[in-house]
Each structure stands twice: as C-alpha cells, then as structure tokens.
TrEMBL record:
PANTHER family the UniProt entry points to: UDP-GLUCOSE 4-EPIMERASE (PTHR43725:SF47)
Known catalytic reactions: UDP-alpha-D-glucose = UDP-alpha-D-galactose
Pathway recorded for this protein: Carbohydrate metabolism; galactose metabolism
Organism in which the protein naturally occurs: Gossypium darwinii (Darwin's cotton)
A molecular function (GO) term: UDP-glucose 4-epimerase activity
Annotated protein name in UniProt: UDP-glucose 4-epimerase
NCBIfam families documented for this protein: galE (TIGR01179), PRK10675.1 (NF007956)
Keyword vocabulary terms for this entry: Carbohydrate metabolism, Galactose metabolism, Isomerase, NAD
Domain NAD(P)-binding stretches: 6-329
SUPFAM superfamilies with a match to the protein in the record: NAD(P)-binding Rossmann-fold domains
Class of enzymatic activity (EC top level): isomerase
E.C. number(s) listed in UniProt: 5.1.3.-
Amino acid sequence: MSKNILVTGGAGYIGSHTVLQLLLGGYKVVVADNLDNSSAVAIKRVEELAGQFGRNLSFRQVDLRDRSVIQKLFAETKFDAVIHFAGLKAVGESVEKPLLYYDNNVIGTITLLEVMAAHGCKNLVFSSSATVYGWPKEVPCTEESPLSAVNPYGRTKLFIEEICRDVHHSDPEWKIILLRYFNPVGAHPSGHIGEDPRGIPNNLMPFVQQVAVGRRPALTVFGNDYATKDGTGVRDYIHVVDLADGHIAALRKLSDPKIGCEVYNLGTGKGTSVLEMVNAFERASGKKIPLVMAGRRAGDAEIVYASTKKAERELNWRARYGIEEMCRDQWNWASKNPYGYGSPESNGVMK
C-alpha cells in the first residue's frame, strides 16, 4: 500500500524537488500551496518528470490559514504524514513586515497541526532552517548549538520548532522531525525545475544566475572584509536534490518507534565562500560574473556551516554533490529557463 503524503508548499523550490523524489519513491502526494511565491508550472513539470508516477500527484491551491479548506483536504484523504514547507522566507521582508510573517508562518502551522490532530495524522516533517542558530559563535553548528534567531523569519522557524516540541510533549503519539537546512542551491539535473524567486532574489545563486543570463548587470557582494580566506562570507551550500533525499530519509525515520521530536541538520559539513561559489559558477557556465563590492549586510553572519554527523548516523543520509555539480545544474536550469517558470513579460522584464 503506497503511503499518502501531504506536502504543503510543494510548488516551491525545495518542495517541488522533494515531491518529485517522493513520486519516484512510490508515494502518493497531495500538494497544498497558495502559489504566493511559486508557480503551478512547477507542479506540471514535476508530474511530467515523474513519468508513470505522475498520476500519483494531485494539487490544491489553498492557504493553510483557511481552516475549513484544510479540514476538507484531510476529510477527503487519509494522510500517513505531512511534510510542511509552506512559509514566507525572505529575511529582509520579514524585518519590514513581521506581522505578515508571524501570521502566515506561525498561524498557518498552528492551523495545520490542529487539523492534523483532529484527523489522527500525527506524523510531521518540518522544514526549519539554519537561521535558528543566529550568528554562531562556534562552527560547525551541531543540533545542540545554542538557538537564537536574529530576524522575524528566523524567529518564525524557531517558534514553530518550539511549538512542535511542546505538542509532542503534550501528546507522545506525535512523531516530528525538524530539518534545519543550510543553503540550498542547484536544480534537478533535467533543468526542468529549479529556483524561481519573485522580484529581486534574496539568495546568492538565483542572483548570480540572473546576472549570467543578462537580467541583472552585476552581483553585489555584501562584505569583503570578513575574517575568512578571501574576506567574503562562508556558508554551507547543499544541492537541492540532496536536500530532497534528506526528506525521504526523514519520512522513513518517522516509522522508527523510538522517534519523538527529533532535529537534524541537512548540509554538506563544508563551508564555501561567496567568491568560491561565484568562481565555480563561472567555470560551469563559461560566463564572467561582474562583481560590485558593498558593505556588510546587517544581520549577516561571518561563517556558518553544519555538522552533519547526526543525520549521517541516524537517517543514513549524506550529501552526495559538491559545488561543481550544484553550479552545473544551476546553470543548466538557468540557461533553459532564463525567466524561470514565467515569460519575460510576466516577470516584469521586457525582452
């Protein structure tokens, strides 16, 4: 009997790649997404990439805060587990619009948890983030590192983690895995799905990609005076397909009778600087990326990378791809889809 999985935010970047891996793994998937920062085209392409398994995918355009619609979803299908990606994720916007972030991310999750409990579905994989470590004093970050989010987005992730721990404490029937991702990059090797942020990208790689295809004149590097090998910030970049596989591993782990509420880092365990990443992308694409050096961004940490020992040991998962593959697949997606899932017109850029 194949398992029914609800994937919230399944049309998004990490969600769509995870949905594809789920389908290929024989799961039946319902995607719930409000398409606030994603595209229904992604779902269509996932269905195509899944081949014969595409028929096990269905999509509902819903908002998690709409309780009656979520209740209807759970009444229609008996879900074995939920993978919860849905949430707003731009750090800068969260500082400007904190209530929007708390309403969408925290209240949406509370509604989801309440409806899950009412329908006896108490298995959850939650997409948390390395932002819960704030500015780590020591690296690598382990799952026991001190938690201190430094912006509203990070706090929504941290609050939801705490809510999950409390929910499990109050009712041990709940099995919850919290996955703290580091910096997801790359795309499916087919080049048919990838990251397509609306507006100005917040993360390095979509920005680099938009410069490479001629949508932006130059990459702004925030801070080149850090105490790192080349002065630029160091992050743990992880291939999105590795990350998707980490979710399948977490889903399997939920059937372990010993699981309560557990947290795992998903990263490569290696730090890469902004300039190293740009150089790797230049090699993969054959394009020169013009740089503009700027001051440090408020709230940016100097060096952040993961300890991945716990995930390797307990989930039997480890990242397989390095930065060369990440950049190769990123460029393959970018060159095939210079305007993401939309046409130039729909992205506000004329040909």
